[in-house]
Structure prediction request, 226 residues.
Amino acid sequence: EVQLVESGGGLVKPGGSLRLSCVGSGFTFNDYNMNWVRQAPGKGLEWVSSISSASSYKYYADSVKGRFTISRDNAKNSLFLQMSSLGAEDSAVYYCAGSAWYFYMGIWGKGTTVTVSS
Amino acid sequence: EIVLTQSPGTLSLSPGERATLSCRTSQSVSSNYLAWYQQKPGQAPRLLIYGSSNRATGIPDRFSGSGSGTDFTLTISRLEPEDCAVYYCQQYSSSPYSFGQGARLEIK
Prediction:
């Protein structure tokens, strides 16, 4: 079964840091570009960051540039998002998504929830 | 940055009718790198269409996409109750790979 499973979400204080992880299975992870997409409560989808299959290219939304870092470990079929200087506006469900070609997203995880609150 | 604007915001139709959802982009999307997703409450999004008009694996042929340049359309023919969802377009032509604000489809 093709699957992405996110973890690492939780409650963090403003200004704090958090590291999200995503593990893929059932497909050739190192052939896929990978992405993070978030959704604040009651809001639409917001693209956060993407990384190419061999980590050659990394892209970020302006809203997270300089605060978030995307990375991957193909040997462990894993994708990461290191988040720092978190604010209330970063509270959302964070989805990990895979792209077989370019950056449309054919595989999605169920998401992990990040809440930034004092 | 390419901004995507979806219309209408909400569409309410009956089973068996046809739904037409629009996505307009602020700049031309090269190579028609435009995708559509369906999201039901409490679920992750699901890819419906990529490359403007290519159905993803397992997507019924009731769903079709069309368009080029700055105007794109998702058409759902013969609506079924399970089509009730929010639909998003996304451009992956250039970073940031932005989404539209979403369009809610209600089935009467």
Remarks:
- Chain A has a mean pLDDT of 97.
- The longest strand of chain A covers residues 18-25.
- Chain A touches chain B at residues 35, 37, 44-47, 50, 59-62, 95, 97, 99, 102-106, 108-111 (CB under 8 Å).
- The CA atoms of residues 40 and 92 of chain A lie 4 Å apart.
